Amino acid sequence: MNRGRRLILIPVLFQILLAGSSTDAPTGAGSRYPNITETDRGFAVCWFEPLGEKFSLKMSEYAGSQWTEPVTITSGEDYFVNWADFPSIYFFGENNFAAHWPQKSGTGPYDYDVKVSQSFDRGHTWTSSITAHRDGKKGEHGFVSFFTNPDGSLALAWLDGRNMTAGHGDHDYGAMNLFSTTLDASGKLGPETLLDDKVCECCPTSAVETKDGIVLAYRDRSDTEIRDMYVVRLNEKEWTKPAPIHADNWKIAGCPVNGPKLASRGNSLASVWFTSPNETPQVLFALSNDNGKTFQEPKRLDGGMPIGRTDLMWLDGRRALASWMEYGEENTHIVFRTVSINGRLGKPFIAAEIDAGRASGYPVIARSGRKIFLAWTSSGESGKVESKWIPVSKL
């Protein structure tokens, strides 16, 4: 990336909100890598937190005005604690939650499994963990997206390195696969389904439920090293063949560690992602009016020097809100921008300053009433999960 270019933040177009909130997430010292799920009461957050020389995975739900007391989902295991492949939590109706985390399975730097646990009492207690895949091989398994199948069953998709043959990052490695399976309340796994036999190695995935079934987005990898965003869709019977969201034609020999985000509302499905064809980094937004079957020509959201690490949500029936990280004139920022269903772009809004390094992880957003909740990881010796609230009226 050409760091010589500088993003000039014009005061008329960019705003910054410095005020915090008395309802910041209840995360402790050294906490890191938050993730979010919407619930019927608001939203819930999970994060890693130090436990002696190891870690625990914790969660708390925000229900309108306050946070629940943090609960430990799992603790003390040999977790794979990583800025790019971090745990997730998922609400799937009534009082049911599922959570996943990466856990080391061998001595290799990327030997880790996908572990899953469920809660049926609003997160107060959690089942013993199960391994979501059954290949039994040492290697990378991660970048999970949960979803609820059209038949109501809990399901997840993940990147699976069972067919990779060499060291991570080498030019002679094998293909990373994209798999999916189901999980019942007893922990029994359904059949494994191969969704794509060659995908980018370490970009997060994103899944949403639509009126026409499930849509799963991910970064594909062609034989000529084109790594654009693709989707597969699950209707009532089967998964569709992979199809591109847009032909960015970004050719890159290694994984850029930047995945897509999806958000669904009614018949509108929004997608946002980072790309850099011809060494031109950009954040793109594309809208589908047929639940992911086709996408409109994307719109560019960034101001010139984006890092990516996007998130996305719908504000209402007409506007989506995208977030990403971007270099500024002096600092790095988390930037918000709205996009309407008719393609109109709102003004960029600087939501927070952030360290540009990997330790910051992926910032995440959620909404409660008239405010947007933003969480990220601050770096340094006193680093922890930071959070703040931003009025929707500012956007």
In short:
With 395 residues, the chain is mainly beta.
What report would you give on this structure?
This protein is an all-beta fold and 395 residues long. It has a single domain (32-394), classed as 6 Propeller (Neuraminidase). It contains no helices and 27 strands. It has a four-stranded antiparallel β-sheet with strand order 1-2-3-4, with no helix packed on it. A four-stranded antiparallel β-sheet has the order 5-6-7-8, with no helix packed on it. Strands 9-10-11-12 form a four-stranded antiparallel β-sheet, with no helix packed on it. The model is unreliable at 1-22 (pLDDT under 50).
Q: Which stretches are poorly predicted, pLDDT < 50 over at least 5 residues?
A: 1-22
Largest sheet: 4 strands, antiparallel
Q: Assign a percent range to the helix content.
A: under 10%
- Main structural class: mainly beta
How would you spell out the order of helices and strands? EEEEEEEEEEEEEEEEEEEEEEEEEEE
Proportion of residues in β-strands: 35-45%
- Classified by CATH, the class is Mainly Beta
What Rg is obtained from the alpha carbons, in whole angstroms?
Answer: 20 Å
Which architecture would the CATH scheme give at its second level?
6 Propeller
